[in-house]
Amino acid sequence: MASPSPSNHFALFDLPEGFVLDKDELASRYRRLAAALHPDRFASGSERDRAQALAKTSLLNDAFETLKHATRRAEYLLSLNGVDLRDESRTLKDTAFLMQQMEWREALMEVEDAEGIDAMRTTILAARDDLHQEFASRFGQQDYDTAADTVRKLKFVDKMLVEIERLEESLLDY
To answer: Which residues form the J domain (predicted)?
Structure first.
């Protein structure tokens, strides 16, 4: 059994470090490791063994969630290369993207039905796909500053998708 290591999430799952990731393989490796660390396996063990299993399970779950979500994976990859986006003092200076944000927000405010929601979702998902490709390219070129700006854009796009879901719930009374 691989022992969860706080040093690198990719190493924990024995996956190559990179943005492009086989999610099915990640899930398979996660299930295998989670089964090996399941609390039932340590029920008759010492308090120390149970505590260690719990800590390793927590680390495993965090690593899985980080790698499973593209934006979190991108942010994690940057952190492995010395770029910390958590303590952000730098703002996005891409005026074209800032204008696009305003246009999307205005369009979202005008949505009145399921068709409008679907159109907005399609637009935002396409933008997210483009940003994923941009991040993979910039990160691969070790252009970490531009890759970090791409993550900032991805965070906005992720928030827009959450707002679209909320609007859908309110319009369709879920």
So the answer is: 8-80
